[in-house]
Specification:
Number of helices: 10
Order of helices and strands: EEEHEHEEEEEHEHHEHEHEHEHH
Strand content: 5-15%
CATH topology: TIM Barrel
Number of strands: 14
Largest sheet: 8 strands, parallel
Low-confidence stretches: none
Mean pLDDT: 97
Helix content: 25-40%
Structural class: alpha/beta
Distance between the termini: 33 Å
Strand order of the largest sheet: 3-14-13-12-11-10-5-4
Bound molecules: flavin mononucleotide
Shape: globular
CATH class: Alpha Beta
Length: 371
Amino acid sequence: MTEQDDILFKPFVLGDLTLPNRVLMAPLTRSRATQPGDIPNDMNVEYYRQRAGAGLIISEATQVSPQGKGYAFTPGIYSEAQIDGWRRVTDAVHEEGGRIILQLWHVGRISHPDLQPDGNAPVAPSAIKPEGAETYVSADSGMVQIPTPRALTLEEMPDIVEQFRQGAKNAKRAGFDGVEVHAANGYLLDQFLRSCSNHRDDAYGGSLDNRLRLPLAVVEAVVEVWGADRVGVRVSPTGSFNAMEDADPVATFGAFARRLDAFGIAFIEVVEDSFQGNHVSGRPDAVIEAIQKGFSRAYIANGDYTADEARERMAAGKTDLVTFGRPFIANPDLPERLRVGAQLNEWDESTFYGGDERGYTDYSTLAGAPD
Ligand SMILES: Cc1cc2nc3c(=O)[nH]c(=O)nc-3n(C[C@H](O)[C@H](O)[C@H](O)COP(=O)(O)O)c2cc1C
């Protein structure tokens, strides 16, 4: 196959951005921000700079507020120092000719009093403990159980929306090319969307319309800041990570997609399958179809994709773009390797979260090991 024929290297117009290839980098928490303050640092700058050949980088999940934090060492986007740190990351990616958007994150119940302001309980739609879910609260804490959260009051909902709005504004000041709202993987917005974690009996829970209310209010606020062409949303309709389940993912996520379409946002990124856990084996075709039926703009697929499966599903019209997670951890030059059919480095799970340059900025490229 010549390069011209390879669909992975056909440019794609995603909202306001023109992507030179369809090999996108998935959001990947690496827990290496400077402490105290959860501030992006030189090591983080280098990591993203190395990966600027991606069609688009979606940043690691980044908390919009101190309350939105759920793991040790993850970066934020609410302080001046964090904004300055991220500005250095986006400058480096842009200098290399890349594009990068920020994943806006509030963890909701997936946290721990040790990580929360004043040692408070984490917040959630309902006071339901995510059975079996764990986090880490320091370098040497090991994995710790997540306790029962406190249900947010009705009066607190506008503040959640404002946290995301401010995060979106700060992302703009930090030089990002857009934002992705994190509504996947069992974090706050997903907790509102899915039936297992939202047992509210007010306007924010119960019926499907009510479960969609807060996530939609957040997306509306973020679109007001950025314009719809610079905004995407990530969902994981059948993912079981963080003790999640929805009674009817086709209905929930089909409806969410239709409502997002009305905002005209640039894309939905769907975690179709994940090593972190999935309720169906393989890709959830019925949910994927429901989302695509309801949503007219770009569909981005994620989860356990090889380059060949990405090519096949793009060619068959089953997805427009694909994000790669773990392959990008181990292969800073992943697009180049796929373009020439080179072998891929293997990832080392022991260095996914926390630590130093090892397993972070020291993976080799085809040109050799980094300096
Ligand atoms: C180390 C690691 C960190 C992750 N962090 C995030 C994150 O910050 N936000 C998110 O939405 N998903 C996160 N994920 C999930 C990935 O984006 C992706 O959905 C998953 O790895 C499956 O894709 P893959 O098979 O291409 O790796 C993470 C996955 C890994 C392995």
